[in-house]
Hints:
By secondary structure, the chain is α/β, with parallel strands linked by helices. Helix content is 22%, strand content 32%.
Amino acid sequence: MMMTVIMNNLCRCSPSITVYACDCSEDTLEKANEIVCNTQGVDAKDRFHPFLLDVSRENFPGWLFCKCCQSSDGKVVDLSPDSIHLYVRGKNSISLKEDQCCVGGIDFITMIFTLSAIPFNTISATLERCVSVLKPGGLILFRDYGVYDMTMLRFLPHQRVGFREYMRADGTYSYFFSLDTVRELFHAAGLLELELEYCCVRSVNRKNGKNMQRVWVHGKFKKPTSQ
């Protein structure tokens, strides 16, 4: 649902934006594509492109890179729109060869509650993959769970599998970030910090009247225009 809301808003905000969305769930992608394409007031034809990918394990497909670094299969995708956006939630991917020069094909990447759901030891490699398809000067927009979020406090001791890392009953991961951890990860990936802060939200469940204390980390990072 979150992917669908973001995709709708992105397609609605500018008629020139092209959005690529990846997820490791085929069902999620199909539902998002159906809803986005059938939303009134949003002309998403040829502007919304969902594709299956587990970004924590796989490289991005070659057609997300610039035309000079396309794979040798002859497929060329027009990356001419004013802004190209990649929504990441993480088949046959193609990695770049060492002798190829690529400036990246994406202007903005959103990672909304993405990194917390993968094993912590794979986050650095995941960020490197994202940076590889980001244009110089491009941005990564990040939001995820922060330390002492209410969901962190609800985990039982036996569910803890690492430092601020927990495993849910269904086997999925949940990591809770501090500002220092986010800063170190994104700086190690070669990105410049533009914004980084906690977002503390208090909401009330209307059904049972319970207060919910949410703590999220918000960040905006930029790929340098020159090395």
